[in-house]
Amino acid sequence: MEDGEAGSSPAPEKKGAEEEDDFGYRLFPDRNKKQQSFLVRSLFTFHNKCQVMLRMTLETNPYAQLLLEAMKQSGCTVFNDRHFSCENCDGCVGGGFDAATSQIVLCQNNIRQQSHMNRVVTHELIHAFDHCRAHVDWFKNVKHLACSEIRAASLSGDCTLMNEIARFKFGLKGHHQTCVRDRAIRSILAVRKVSKETAEKAVDEVFDACFNDLEPFGRIPHSKTDARRAFRDFQNRDRYNANL
């Protein structure tokens, strides 16, 4: 998860156990509410705008398109109506991946710009891709969560130079790695009731391996141009493999 933009892997909250970890569900209050009818939801401007921006991301954003294709080839085809849900969330997050339902939550009250939607969808699709390709223990193994948060922060565009400048954070050598580490730690702390030291230790122990895991991009895409090239290379790689 990234603060103000995305969350990851909440699990059902256990009632009557306030001292137990709620796995981030407090950030997504609509998760435990009865689903409203489409007619009722369509009357809300936020919901309509969220749906329109989501469609735009899925149809035009190269980051999302690559991830959707990779998941399809891994046997985890993503369907708009089934795997995405526009909901109201806590004021500090933009979205989350609910591993219990394999559904991406998009915070319709917090996502106001298309560029923000692009980053949230990409970030959460990386979690979904990891969920599809690996046996990720989201709820009991903080190292697994840390690994996916590292990959999501690194590959989704969260830590691009322009985004960091917008956050008034500047750096040169190794700044991308610093940004990825910081955002992964903050994401863990947002959805798990663990100490900062525990989150830092988990991230540091898996950082090198997970930071260098570039699937399915094959590179760190620092811009849409990079993502388009990665998507093209991914498609060509599959065509090459098909001819072997």
UniProtKB/TrEMBL annotation:
The keyword NAD does not apply. Keywords: Hydrolase, Metal-binding, Metalloprotease, Protease. Residues 1-21 are annotated as: Disordered. GO terms for molecular function: metal ion binding; metalloendopeptidase activity. One of its GO terms (cellular component) is mitochondrion. The keyword Metal-binding applies. Belongs to the peptidase M76 family. This is Mitochondrial inner membrane protease ATP23. It comes from Calyptomena viridis. The lineage of its organism: Eukaryota, Metazoa, Chordata, Craniata, Vertebrata.
